[in-house]
Write a structure and sequence with these properties.
Helices cover 0% and strands 35% of the residues. The chain contains no helices and 4 strands.
Length: 55
């Protein structure tokens, strides 16, 4: 069962769903992250990531 688009995860948490994730806020970026990998920091900071597209 897939997690819904819009699901969020924070830096350091395990990625709950493979896909394209976007940083919430500014500056923003997107990154492909695989399920089970650790959610990365962005620009040296802990951030919240939002799932915007399935892998």
């Amino acid at each position: 069962m897939r997690k819904p688009l819009g699901t969020t995860a924070k830096t350091g948490e395990n990625c709950p769903e493979s896909g394209v994730w976007e940083v919430v806020g500014k500056p923003s970026t997107t990154a492909p992250i695989s399920k089970g990998n650790k959610m990365p920091p962005y620009d040296g900071k802990a951030v919240t990531w939002k799932l915007i597209q399935y892998a």
